[in-house]
Amino acid sequence: LGWIAALLSVPVTTGFLAGIAIHIIVSQLPGLLGLPAQSGETLQRVGEIATNLHLTNPYSLALGLGVFAIVFLTERFSARIPGALIGLVLATLAVVVFGLADRGVAVLGALPNGLPRAGLPLVRLSDIQALVPLALLIAIVVMVQTAATARSFVSQQGEAPDVNRDFVGVGAGSIASGLFAGFPVNASPPRTAIAAQTGGHSQLAGLFAAAIVLALGAFGGGLLANVPQAALAGVLLFVARRILRWQVFAKVYRQAPLEFLLILITMAAIVVLPIQIGVAIGIGLSLLHGVWSATRTPRDCA
Question: What's the average model confidence in pLDDT over 37-60?
Answer without folding.
Answer: 87
